[in-house]
Amino acid sequence: MLSLTGALVREGVLAAEKELATAIAQGGKVEIDLSAVTSIDSAGVALLATYARRLRQDGGSLHLMGARPEVERTLELFPFLEEVPPEVPNRPGWFETMGERGLVAREVALQYLVLCADAAYFTVQGIWQRRGIRWSVVFYEMAMMGSKATGVVGLISFLVGTTITLQSADQLRQFGANIFAVNLIGISMTRELGPLMAAIVVAGRSGSAVAAELGTMMVSEEIDALKTLGLHPTRFLVVPKLLAITITQPLLTILADAAGIFGGFLVCTSYLDIAPGVFFDRLQESLYLKDLMTGLIKSVVFAQLIVTIGAICGLRTRGGADAVGRSTTVAVVAGIFAVIVADAIASLIFYFGA
User: Fold this and answer.
1) Rounded to two decimals, what is the model's pTM?
2) How many CB atoms neighbour CB 333 within 10 A?
């Protein structure tokens, strides 16, 4: 048994450490009598805790006895002698995981429906009111979402149109059906590829920007400040973006159609030996107004999905900068996925309705 005396405080722990080191070197069960210890502070407790941990690692134990009430109260603040069992992580089962994901999906779906309903209501209400829509903000968003995206949309659509025509030309030349490449590029760009390429580019560019902007405002509590001022976040932030992209997305789709057809025109005139006049005559014969309107209707639907999905991802952001990054990533992936699914559904509807 080891007996410690005096004040076990910061100034006296060095002397006590030598006695503890000698006693603990023997290992096994070590008992320390604290009846002569008049006071103890955090340094003394830390000393006892250090040697108690060393004993436990070597298979021994440390027992304290005879402590005065004031010393006992200090030791109770640091229960280092109680060996805490390692916490076993509780791994949820398969059904529990699926149930939790189902609840989260239900919550997100309800919030998304509420957001869409609020956006539709405030849009219609704002159009009929004299000062319901901040048109200056709408024009600014049109410039950000529309005019600054024309370059990348036009370039990608041009390359896609060129590639599609080149790939089809190699097969059509074998059967002497070069002229049908005009039908292929005209119909495919106006009905499918033009709206889809423009929507994917805008989803990656503007959908991520919407999610990042609203997510940052959520993290910095700016959304809460708007609510405190009596301003509805959907009306103040989402509606201008929704109107802007609804106006600009069909225009970007027309640009994508024209760029893709121009790429096909270059391939047909230079590789398939089709005269420019023959190309435009065949294009006029194969294309109908219905083909162009199908792509434009799709573009409006895609625009609504891009902004609303980006907005719901941004408004659900909780945490810090890393949460904003995750929300932006989810917005881009979910937006592109929703656009492709909507395109498939719309293609089926227009196909069977034709």
Assistant:
1) 0.71
2) 16
